[in-house]
Amino acid sequence: MDSTRDLFIALARRYAFADLGALAPDPEVADVCDFGQRLLSLDAEDFAVEARSVPAALRRSARACHMPQTAREQPRGALESLRPAYRLLLEVIAVRWHRRELSPMIAAVHIAGEYLPLLAFEPQLGHAGDPARWPEGLSAPGSRFGVIGDRDCDHTKSEQSATNRTLRVSIEPPEGWRAYFDRQHSQVAGAVAVCVSTCRKPCTAMHWIDPEPRADLGVRARTALAFAETPLVRLRHAAPVGHGFGVPSPEEVLDAWERSRAVLDKSEVGAAALKDDGFPLPGLPSLFSAIAATPIAPATLLDGVSRHIVGLLERLPG
Q1: 0.90 cut: is pTM over it?
Q2: Superkingdom of this entry's organism (predicted)?
Q3: What is the pLDDT of residues 235-280, one digit of tens each?
Q4: Where in the chain does DSSP place strands (E)?
Q5: CB of 188 within 8 A of CB of 166?
Q6: 3-state DSSP assignment of residue 72
Q7: How many angstroms separate the CA atoms of 288 and 283, rounded?
Q8: Fewer beta carbons under 10 A from the terminal one: N or C of the chain?
Q9: Would you say 42 and 92 are in contact if contact means Cβ atoms under 8 Å apart?
Q10: Is 9 left (phi over 0), alpha (psi -120 to 50) or beta?
């Protein structure tokens, strides 16, 4: 039993939750492994699924990253603040890097890039882009936000459709709410960044933010948009046939990140990516922190799950 238990403990310490869960000698261990695998897979819809075998502190941390499945669900999780979710993203990126699982690692980077503008907006909004709490100023007189077909608006047609829907999706049934988040919320994230940073004919949509903080937000939002176009994020789409082929090597990932850092070094915010902060992709937590205007460090949620599983295994009878 000792050699088998040593193997299980090694799997837990390597965050191999799916493998360990399939082999688990105990239902409680299997339950915690399922919880850990949902986190590692970034299955944010199910972070709030009850897992009685998991310590309450870990469940609370996971719920902070959960995406509400209805317009009225409480607590609001990742719509209240994206900061816990970005801490988890950084932890997942690091774990995937050390496990050399580079395809899911790049997928996590891609997710981070999609919603990064909302992380920048959080200090001004007081939330993380919750469609049930958009400021009335977005629809102020003279605003083109959410107006479909307005040729003076710099939003693409799909962004105009998404911004139009985000202003009313909070009164839709749960099915419509979930469909919006599956298909359109990331487009809204990019659209609000365009409004405050790159729009060639600004309207009144962002006048609810005072000029000085709006200028600061504009720099952070522009950097968030730039990150989404960097060579690192573009690795997600580099495969010649779909996303399941052409997995990059570690050397290709590091090279793409170095080129991305050079692209981002256009402002004080983007220059944060040049810091050597000890992360596998050096400077990534510093960049997210600069865009968020608050420290964003990797979470210890997966590590907590791993250590809890090890403790359970060590208590099993020999």
Answers
A1: yes
A2: Bacteria
A3: 987 654 444 556 889 999 999 999 999 999 999 999 999 999 999 9
A4: none
A5: yes
A6: coil
A7: 9
A8: C
A9: yes
A10: alpha
171's tokens: 């009164």
Q: Which amino acid is at 51?
A: A
- Would you call 210 helix, strand, or coil by DSSP? coil
CA 84/CA 79 separation, integer angstroms: 11
Q: Would you call 262 helix, strand, or coil by DSSP?
A: helix
- 218: tokens are 């504009």
Alpha-carbon distance of 62 to 40, in angstroms, equals 11
Q: Whole-angstrom Cα distance, residue 227 to residue 257?
A: 10
Nearest alpha-carbon partner for 52 in 73, 77, 30: 30
Helical packing angle, 185-197 and 174-183, nearest 10°: 60
Give the pLDDT confidence score for residue 242 in this predicted structure. 46
Residue with tokens 């309207």: 203
Q: Could you give the CA distance from residue 138 to residue 209 in angstroms, rounded to a whole number? A: 10
CA torsion 234→235→239→242, rounded to 10°? -70
Q: What is the DSSP letter of 75?
A: S
Which helix (H) or strand (E) covers residue 111, if one does? helix 102-125
What pLDDT is stored for residue 168 in this prediction? 97
DSSP state of 68: P
The Cβ of residue 171 has, within 10 Å, a number of other Cβ atoms equal to 10
- In this structure, how many other beta carbons lie within 10 angstroms of the beta carbon of residue 86? 27
- Spatial separation of the C-alpha atoms in residues 177 and 85, rounded to whole Å: 20
Q: Find out whether the peptide bond into 285 is cis, omega within 30 degrees of 0.
A: no
In degrees rounded to 5, what are phi and psi of residue 42? 60, 40
Report the pLDDT value the prediction gives residue 240, as an integer from 0 to 100: 46
What values do phi and psi take at 193, rounded to 5?
Answer: -65, -40
Structure tokens at 98: 């050390």
